[in-house]
Amino acid sequence: MKSLTEHLWFEVPARCGFVNITNTVEELVRRSGVQEGICLVNAMHITASVFINDNEGGLHHDYEVWLEKLAPHEPLKNYQHNRTGEDNADAHLKRQIMGREVVVAITKRKLDFGPWEQIFYGEFDGRRRKRVLVKIIGE
Amino acid sequence: MKSLTEHLWFEVPARCGFVNITNTVEELVRRSGVQEGICLVNAMHITASVFINDNEGGLHHDYEVWLEKLAPHEPLKNYQHNRTGEDNADAHLKRQIMGREVVVAITKRKLDFGPWEQIFYGEFDGRRRKRVLVKIIGE
Amino acid sequence: MKSLTEHLWFEVPARCGFVNITNTVEELVRRSGVQEGICLVNAMHITASVFINDNEGGLHHDYEVWLEKLAPHEPLKNYQHNRTGEDNADAHLKRQIMGREVVVAITKRKLDFGPWEQIFYGEFDGRRRKRVLVKIIGE
Fold this sequence. Notes:
- The structure is a homotrimer.
- The first copy, chain A, has three helices and eight strands.
- By secondary structure, chain A is α+β, with helices and mostly antiparallel strands.
- The longest helix of chain A is centred in the middle third of the chain and has 14 residues, at 57-70.
- Chain A is elongated, with a radius of gyration of 16 Å.
- The A-B interface holds A 1, 36-38, 51-54, 56-59, 61-63, 66, 70, 97-99, 102-105, 107, 112-117, 137-139 and B 1, 3, 5, 38, 40, 42-46, 70-71, 79-84, 89, 92-93, 95-97, 99-101, 103, 131, 133, 135, 137.
């Protein structure tokens, strides 16, 4: 069995934002030498997500508006978590909707993707350095 | 390490619908010859889901009503994504709630399931042919 | 390839509750002898979740309040699923938000975690015995 472990670093300049990491992950799959296997990509922070969806700016705007409606940032005092001195309770909620991780099949040395699938890092409490883990296993 | 890759095709006749794919996936596990491993099942389209829950029609109705409330299809103009000429922004949102994929353990040549676990394809923008990927790895 | 399969049992005394299972999963990783691989942890019941987030009581309270708002337990008759004699339709919905499973990388014999990542069993229809599956594969 082969394996590869890599950490990707991000510092999103706003509180929320989405970063397309598809090419980076594809390059790691090539480097791993795995022909058949799986690739796990997960946020290592609990106020961020990794998810697969469309590379379309209008949709990303829609996600931000929708998540803010489902889990509003303010009023801060509506969340007990914010009594710890944090102001990011909403980010912990948003991340559960968008998910922590994706698992992608590797077939014939490539990510086995449908036509529009792209991998995104989703940030809900940015303006600081945070990590994503890529783990590849297979043969 | 053994592996098996298979694409399943669906054309759901309505915009939304759920299809039980448990038996198909179980048959693929048998065919793979894997005794101990994992089985990844994911939608290859970004307006559809694969999820595990109950094979009960009333619950599926409840999911449809609930998702429509959380991410309504109309008014179409409420979503920037629909300015691209699409009318399926809501489907991209619904799919994030229900999830892209499931990873199921294979133990002693079978899906290692609790008593009520069943795998479903969840369609939120149907009336066209779409795919699901099944990837099995193990020994 | 090495593998380990283990079932964890829970009986949460209330309808909803969260149980930190990180140490138990870490001990299973040690016992598996896997150096590089992945660890799948999933609820075997369809009204419960396994998720990764913060070990902070205020946040867990916020999750309960938020999930109750998104998918209220009552009125029971608002859900067709409850016509089967069940009263747990809301639990099937809540579990989709929080997720069925997590997949965690194993690197150098340990769960490859960010600083605050902890694994939780999330119960939405408790007061009875239910199971979680841990499946570890790798080398």
